[in-house]
Design brief:
Blueprint: E1 3-7, E2 10-13, E3 19-25, E4 33-39, E5 46-51, E6 58-60, E7 68-73, E8 78-83, E9 92-99, E10 115-116, E11 120-125
Parallel strand pairs: 2-11
Antiparallel strand pairs: 1-3, 3-8, 4-5, 4-9, 5-6, 7-8, 9-10, 9-11
Length: about 130
């Protein structure tokens, strides 16, 4: 059984640059493409970014381009989301997810990911 645990959220001032972490246990991280999603109050969960098993391919949502960077350290079984220049509209619960992919194709739909963490709240104050 794969377990994902996010950390690094909290209350951040606008313009801040927190880094979220997602620790994966139960299976080796290197067999999964990984994604970050977020869900704001009253809104549907939305895709933020995804990274391939080797880290060689990255796919960002338009909202993340130029501000968020996804990365991974397979040796440490951890995935990261570096967030810069945060805005109040970035306030959401952020989730990491694992896709037991057989190809390098990165996915942006949440139903295509098999495993999920419990989420970490990021609140951006203006």
């Amino acid at each position: 059984q794969v377990q994902l645990v996010e950390s690094g959220g909290g209350l951040v001032q606008a313009g801040g640059s927190p880094r979220l972490s997602c620790a994966v246990s139960g299976r080796t991280l290197s067999i999964y493409n990984m994604g970050w999603f977020r869900q704001a109050p009253g809104k549907e969960r939305e895709f933020v970014a995804a990274i391939s098993r080797s880290g060689g391919t990255i796919y960002n949502a338009d909202s993340a381009k130029g501000r968020f960077t996804i990365s991974r350290d397979n040796a440490k079984n951890t995935v990261f989301l570096q967030m810069n220049s945060l805005k109040p509209e970035d306030t959401a619960v952020y989730y990491c997810a694992a896709d037991r992919a057989t190809t390098g194709t990165l996915k942006r739909r949440d139903y295509e990911y098999e495993y999920w963490g419990q989420g970490t709240q990021v609140t951006v104050s203006s």
